Structures are given as structure tokens and as C-alpha cells.
């Protein structure tokens, strides 16, 4: 992941813009990522936190393929039907 120079969330496009060391730029659609990985509001909230506060961590998790594992370990979700 040393090829990532910088990351910044663009609220107007809902994308994280990633600048790479070779000068190229990649734009990651955060709504598409949420639709793919987040199954509940807690996971959406965790993704939103990463996007706004730690975009570099967000991009590294996504590019390494560890986003799903991160969400499973960082969110505690019990469906209401299981609480009865």
C-alpha cells in the first residue's frame, strides 16, 4: 500500500479521491462500497466514520480486501428478532 500518496473524501461526489505515487488518481464511489459491504445501520455508520475521519484507512481496507472482516470485528449488531 506504499503506492498511495494521499486520500481525501469529496462530499460533493460522495467519493474518496486517491492520489497514487505515479501521479494517477482513482475515485472510489463510497455509496457503491456501502451497498456492497454494509448490511445494517451500524456497519454504514462505521464506514461513514472511516470516510470522514480516516480516509486512508478506508482505502487500505478496501484495496486489501479486508473491509468485510473489519466490519465483522468492529460492529456489534443483534437483530431485534433475536432479542426476544
Explain this structure to me?
With 84 residues, this protein is α+β, with helices and mostly antiparallel strands. It has one domain. The chain has helices at residues 30-37, 41-53, 55-64, 67-74; strands at residues 4-10, 15-20, 25-29. The chain has a 3-stranded antiparallel beta sheet. Strand 2 and strand 3 form a beta hairpin. The longest helix has 13 residues, at 41-53. The termini are far apart.
What tags apply to this protein structure?
alpha+beta, elongated, three-stranded antiparallel beta sheet, 3 strands, 84 residues, 4 helices
Percentage of helical residues?
A: 40-55%
Mean pLDDT: 90
Q: What is the count of β-strands?
A: 3
Proportion of strand residues? 15-25%
Distance between the termini: 45 Å
CA-atom Rg in angstroms: 14 Å
- The secondary-structure element order is EEEHHHH
Our count of domains comes out at: 1
Strand order of the largest sheet: 1-2-3
Count of helical stretches:
4
**How does the helix and strand content classify structurally?**
alpha+beta
Q: Overall 3D geometry?
A: elongated
Question: Topology of this structure?
Answer:
Layout: E1 4-10, E2 15-20, E3 25-29, H1 30-37, H2 41-53, H3 55-64, H4 67-74
Short description:
The protein is α+β, with helices and mostly antiparallel strands and 84 residues long.
Amino acid at each position: 500500500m506504499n503506492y498511495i500518496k494521499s486520500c481525501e473524501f469529496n462530499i460533493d461526489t460522495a467519493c474518496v479521491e486517491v492520489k497514487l505515487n505515479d501521479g494517477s488518481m482513482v475515485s472510489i464511489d463510497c455509496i457503491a462500497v456501502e451497498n456492497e459491504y454494509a448490511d445494517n445501520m451500524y456497519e454504514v455508520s462505521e464506514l461513514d466514520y472511516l470516510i470522514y475521519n480516516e480516509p486512508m484507512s478506508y482505502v487500505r481496507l478496501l484495496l486489501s480486501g479486508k473491509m468485510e472482516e473489519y466490519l465483522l470485528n468492529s460492529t456489534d449488531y443483534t437483530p431485534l428478532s433475536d432479542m426476544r
